[in-house]
Amino acid sequence: MLNSHPKKRSEGRDLLGEGDKNSRSFPDVPPPNISPLKPTEVYDTYWRFAAERQDIFFSRAEGHPPPWTKDEILTTYKFTNAYRASDRVSQYLIRRVIYRADLPASHEETCFRVMLFKLFNKIETWEMLERKLGALTWRTFDFKRYDKVLADAMAAGQRIYSAAYIMPSAGSLGYDRKHRNHLALIERMMSDGLPRKIAAAKRMQDGFELLLGYPSLGDFLAYQYITDLNYSELTDFSEMDFVVAGPGALDGISKCFADTAGLNPPEIIRFMADRQEAEFERLGLKFRSLWGRRLQLIDCQNLFCEVSKYSRESHPGVTGIANRTRIKQKFRPTDSPISYWYPPKWGINDKVVASLPSNAIQ
Q: DSSP letters of 283-352?
């Protein structure tokens, strides 16, 4: 067992820290028995952040009025949910892009829709394309028509890409505008028979490697996209099969551990997923799972990314490998309703419908 407790802090504004009159206080707890791994003070923050962010999710989804937390950082800045599939964009992808009774459900068409949506990753762009072009299908896809809609939108000052992460331009495909290269990328994927190849993949990593073979799709995007495709009936991989740590997660890992004892980032993420119940119990946290679904590898990866951001305020002295000090995006609540719904193969939608109002707010 490690023989030192994480250090207490006197600065910061976190619900997990000490000294703020609006903060929740936590009793001293024994350090985790995870030697030879050496956790920092941010390790416990990881678990407390996960529990508090999930509490906020349920408070909002159940229709409770604000404030949903006493944590000043979570009130001020934007953070994703503890479960990736609960985020607004993922919910839109699942319900309004993948599982659409009015659109064809073939593997080919489903893959086309997922890739079209995710290359821009912006709800407003998808809805604009639908308004201008009608049903978005591979059978009726026309490069010039899609290009015109997107080019006109940009000329009018509209942003067609999400700010969630930077999309490389895929310039090797030969076009002068990023959106044209991405339309060409979709054409190449479909012409290559990617839907059939993804559907035949035996492991999540096999699907990831197929995506990795396309221009501009590095490890991070290929992993995100295979996760998105796996929400559909195209594949049936377990989210515990495979994980890739993005840049934010790598920074979060460096903040949570002074020594990872030789484990690589995917092994650390799997360690966290395997450890979750023991750590919530050790810290006296009542973590509300996703209607019985444990945190999966993709969720633990995302939580590292989010605690990397959170700790810039809560633990400013822990710099991590990225050495970033500011959280850019402020939290702005929206009153647009979400009826929460998850991939049917997860087997939780009956519980969701039974426990939530018909129109929850995210």
A: TT-----BTTBPP-HHHHHHHHHHHHHHHHHH-TT--TTT------PBP-----EE-----GGGS-HHHH
**By the 8 A CB rule, do 228 and 190 touch?**
no
DSSP labels for 83-97? SGGGSHHHHHIIIII
Asked whether residue 133 falls in the same domain as residue 202, the answer is yes
Whether residue 354 is contained in a domain is answered as no
Give this prediction's pTM. 0.91
Q: Are strands 38-39 and 257-259 parallel, antiparallel or unpaired?
A: antiparallel
Instruction: Decide if 269 contacts 300 (C-beta within 8 A).
Output: yes
**Cα(166)–Cα(249) distance, rounded to whole angstroms?**
16
d(CA 338, CA 60): 11
| CA 118 to mean position of chain CA atoms | 12
For every one of its 362 residues, what pLDDT tens digit does the chain have, with 9 covering 90 and above?
A: 333 333 333 344 455 544 343 344 567 898 899 999 999 999 999 999 999 999 999 999 999 999 999 999 999 999 999 999 999 999 999 999 999 999 999 999 999 999 999 999 999 999 999 999 999 999 999 999 999 999 999 999 999 999 887 889 888 999 999 999 999 999 999 999 999 999 999 999 999 999 999 999 999 999 999 999 999 999 999 999 999 999 999 999 999 999 999 999 999 999 999 999 999 999 999 999 999 999 999 999 999 999 999 999 999 999 999 999 999 889 887 777 789 999 999 999 999 999 998 655 54
Q: Are residues 143 and 216 in the same domain?
A: yes
The answer to whether the beta carbons of residues 43 and 257 sit under 8 Å apart is yes
What residues form DSSP beta bridges with 360?
A: 338
Domain that holds residue 308: 38-81+243-336
Could you tell me if residue 321 is inside a domain?
Answer: yes
Is the residue at 186 inside a domain? Answer: yes
Same domain, 269 and 222: no
